Amino acid sequence: MGRVRRILNRRFVIGALLVGVLAVGAGVVWFQPWKLWVNTTVHEAAPVAAEAGSGAPRTLAMGDLISHEHKTSGKVRVLELPDGSRTLRLEGLDTSAGPDVKVLLSDAPVKEGKAGWHVFDDGAHRSLGSLKGNKGDQNYALPADLDLGRYRSVSIWCDRFDVSFGAAALTRA
Questions:
Q1: Number of structural domains, the chain?
Q2: Whole-number Å distance between alpha carbons of 8 and 121
Q3: Which residue, 13, 22, 35, 72, could crosslink 97 as a Cys pair with Cβ 3.0–4.6 Å?
Q4: Which parts of 32-133 fold into alpha helices (H)?
Q5: Is residue 36, in this structure, part of any structural domain at all?
Q6: What is the largest CA-CA distance in the chain?
Q7: Average pLDDT along the chain
Q8: Element (H, E) at 128
Q9: 24 lies in which domain range?
């Protein structure tokens, strides 16, 4: 009987260790903690008109990023080119990297502190795609059918954890 108990205890310990290793592995894949120490800097030039001499881009809206879940700073501008195309431009962005981070347009107001962390996907929102880098200057094309009047904020949004790293209220120019 003692020998059977030792074998069962050993199997239980080995099984518990295997479950623990699998749980840690799954946690590492899900949280991707190494991204907290890896920076990607992007330096895209501001968009310009396709034809020389056809005019400079016009600023339609702008805002300053504030921090939410992660320290975030930089400027946001919505630009319209002479051909009518529009671009959302992040300038001087400085935030954390993370898993599945997107640039989101939202109808939610920008609130400071924890009250603003989880609101940007509650109402009308539109993803402009994955964040290209957590530092620098970058451009995101706005769809032609996008009604800018419907959206009043931009969020650097972690889709994996449904949390805003930082956000900016858009003020019409």
A1: 2
A2: 49
A3: 35
A4: none
A5: no
A6: 92
A7: 87
A8: strand 125-130
A9: 2-31
